[in-house]
């Protein structure tokens, strides 16, 4: 697969599609995107397109069927009296739920079979001592992402948020769009789907701004993430050879790697979209300024969080069963806890799914539930925490120190989550955590930093400076200043020279060449 | 409108709120507060708020919530 940060992707796949997209009249621009997307998907998967094709066909048919049911009701409405209308509405509602339920189950079943079958086999083998053979089904590229988009489209059609598209090519483009299919962002049809279908005319300003964002994304990926990966990957496998402080640095650098890689790739794809006049949904908003883990998840992988909230959390917690539970709880608990009790069950489903979505393994489930426990602890102790702060005279909303304390606390908890996420299993994660705590200052010769990690002094300097640049840009954004707006105010010639300089800088200090193996995109494996 | 602002102020004491205060993007309404708000709105205005109504645009500010309630009241009356 040509990674989004590779020259092959940027020049051949994106470049080729962009040229075709620019040449075609607006009405037919989506065909250029479709051709580019199919070409990219077909080559990247070596023809393993069956799962995406089946998903597209099922979703297309089911959405049209739901639309037809609603259209028939609208047509017949005038001929029905009030009672008949009520009966027909109830019957139609059941029909819509059935069509949605069957099509969504089929779509999700494809995800489960292709991604989790071997995990299920291994779990059964380890529980019952059986020797079932693994399946040979290859995980389809982007299945975790396009399945969520497919389910959201079905749900949105069912609930009248969008009309089903009659054009199968437009639906196929939405599900297979080459900029989002591998790592997201997870888009919704009424947003990106509509934009893709309509196309956009060339806009020089958006083109330049998009290109700037692509460069910044590449910087995050090839200068920062791929260097941090050199240290972090070895430390997670061989931490016992070093000391706790170095292992802790490994965890911090893994967090840096994951953030700069995932957000960097999002910058690349959003920038490419912007160059074509398309606005892709944002996936990150300075997550490390979060004051709680709940806030962190509303700033980190935002489209996944929004999906889980809109299509799992609210439908579950506002369902009749949960409402009844809430009423029962209301009779016994204070209003705060009465609202929290049923939400806790819906939250469990959300975090279980969030963990499980990330990968076929128990450590991913533990990763999701880790955040569930943290959030529940935070929510259930909220009244107590408020009382304690009031007694101590801490003004939680305005105190700067409290604000900083909460940011640092969240940062520490997120890093602990990253340790669980990246360790080779839960046992190894606990071992590494214990090692950090018990061997923090163990003597280790300083020269290992230069001999073991494939990093030299200039690499550490670049890593530190690039991290400082990343923090500076994040601080600016957090203060409501978009660095690209500032950059846009510079004279055109100066902008051009600076962009050229930045491109050269990327080529010179990017982590590639014979010393570095290409680092695979972490989220592409999900 | 005043009823809605009163409910919001009860749920978010200490937060300055008026009819145009941004509620979703500013994270004044997180998921749990949203659930409590939906519960209070449902009982106060005797409407059924389902998951399909809980969209960011319907809860963007107090005015958007008022418009949603108007629509839901009309839907309820229509169904009655």
Would you give an account of this structure?
Chain A is mainly alpha-helical and 526 residues long. Chain A has three domains: 7-201, no CATH class; 205-280 and 437-525, no CATH class; 297-422, no CATH class. In chain A, 73% of the residues lie in helices and 0% in strands. Chain A is built from 21 helices and no strands. In chain A, helix 3 packs across helix 6, helix 9 packs across helix 17 (426-438) and helix 11 (302-317) packs across helix 13. The two termini of chain A are 14 Å apart. The model of chain A has no long low-confidence stretch (mean pLDDT 89). With 80 residues, chain B is mainly α. Chain B has one domain (2-79): ACP-like (Non-ribosomal Peptide Synthetase Peptidyl Carrier Protein, Chain A). Chain B starts with a helix and ends with a helix. In chain B, 29% of the residues are buried. The model of chain B has no long low-confidence stretch (mean pLDDT 85).
Which helices and strands appear, and what pairs or packs with what?
The complex is a heterodimer of chains A (about 525) and B (about 80).
Chain A: H1 7-23, H2 29-45, H3 50-76, H4 82-128, H5 143-158, H6 168-176, H7 189-198, H8 204-238, H9 244-275, H10 293-297, H11 302-317, H12 320-332, H13 335-358, H14 362-380, H15 382-392, H16 400-422, H17 426-438, H18 448-451, H19 457-478, H20 483-488, H21 492-509
Helix pairs in contact in A: 1-2, 2-6, 3-4, 3-5, 3-6, 4-5, 6-7, 8-9, 8-19, 8-21, 9-16, 9-17, 11-13, 12-13, 13-14, 14-16, 16-17
Chain B: H1 2-11, H2 31-45, H3 62-79
Helix pairs in contact in B: 1-2
């Amino acid at each position: 697969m040509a990674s989004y940060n590779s020259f092959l992707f940027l020049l051949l796949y994106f470049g080729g599609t962009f040229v075709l997209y620019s040449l075609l009249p607006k009405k037919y621009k989506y065909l250029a995107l479709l051709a580019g997307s199919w070409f990219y998907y077909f080559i990247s998967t070596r023809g393993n397109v069956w799962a995406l094709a089946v998903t597209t066909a099922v979703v297309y048919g089911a959405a049209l069927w739901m639309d037809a049911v609603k259209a028939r009701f609208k047509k017949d409405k005038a001929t029905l009296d009030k009672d008949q209308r009520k009966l027909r509405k109830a019957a139609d509602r059941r029909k819509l739920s059935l069509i949605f339920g069957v099509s969504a189950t089929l779509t999700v079943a494809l995800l489960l079979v292709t991604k989790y079958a071997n995990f299920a086999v291994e779990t059964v083998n380890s529980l019952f001592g059986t020797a079932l053979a693994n399946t040979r089904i290859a995980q389809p590229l982007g299945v975790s992402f396009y399945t969520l988009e497919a389910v959201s489209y079905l749900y949105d059609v069912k609930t009248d948020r969008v009309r089903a598209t009659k054009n199968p090519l437009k639906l196929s483009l939405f599900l297979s769009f080459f900029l989002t299919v591998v790592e997201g962002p997870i888009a919704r049809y009424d947003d990106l789907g509509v934009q893709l279908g309509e196309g956009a005319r060339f806009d020089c300003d958006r083109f330049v701004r998009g290109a700037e964002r692509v460069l910044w994304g590449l910087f995050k990926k090839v200068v920062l993430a791929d260097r941090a990966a050199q240290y972090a990957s070895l430390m997670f496998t061989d931490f016992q050879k070093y000391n706790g402080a170095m292992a802790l640095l490994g965890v911090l650098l893994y967090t840096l790697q994951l953030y700069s890689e995932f957000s960097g790739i999002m910058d690349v794809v959003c920038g490419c979209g912007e160059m074509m006049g398309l606005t892709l949904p944002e996936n990150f908003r300075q997550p490390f300024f979060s004051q709680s883990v709940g806030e962190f998840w509303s700033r980190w992988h935002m489209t996944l969080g929004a999906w889980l909230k809109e299509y799992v959390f609210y439908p579950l917690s506002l369902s009749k069963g949960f409402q009844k539970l809430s009423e029962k709880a209301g009779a016994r608990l204070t209003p705060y806890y009465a609202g929290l009790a049923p939400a806790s069950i819906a939250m469990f489903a959300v975090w279980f799914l969030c963990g499980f979505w990330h990968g076929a393994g128990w450590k991913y489930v533990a990763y999701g539930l880790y955040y569930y426990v943290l959030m529940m602890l935070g929510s259930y102790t909220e009244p107590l925490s408020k009382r304690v702060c009031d007694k101590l005279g801490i003004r939680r909303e305005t105190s700067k120190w409290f604000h900083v304390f909460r940011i640092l606390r969240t940062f520490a908890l997120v890093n602990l989550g990253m340790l669980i996420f990246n360790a080779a299993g839960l046992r190894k994660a606990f071992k590494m955590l214990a090692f950090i705590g018990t061997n923090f200052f163990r003597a280790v010769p300083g020269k290992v930093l230069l001999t073991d990690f494939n990093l030299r002094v200039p690499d550490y300097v670049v890593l530190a400076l690039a991290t400082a640049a990343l923090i500076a840009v994040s601080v600016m954004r957090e203060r409501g200043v978009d660095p690209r707006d500032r950059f846009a105010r510079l004279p055109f010639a100066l902008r051009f020279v600076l962009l050229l300089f930045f491109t050269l800088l990327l080529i010179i200090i990017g982590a590639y060449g014979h010393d570095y193996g290409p680092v695979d995109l972490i989220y592409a494996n999900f | 409108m005043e009823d809605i602002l009163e409910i919001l102020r009860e749920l978010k004491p200490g937060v300055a709120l008026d009819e145009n205060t941004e509620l979703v993007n500013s994270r004044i309404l997180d998921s749990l507060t949203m659930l409590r708000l939906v519960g209070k709105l449902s009982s106060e205005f005797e409407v059924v708020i389902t998951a399909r109504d809980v969209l960011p645009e319907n809860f963007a500010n107090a005015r958007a919530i008022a418009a949603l309630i108007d629509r839901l009241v009309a839907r309820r009356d229509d169904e009655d």
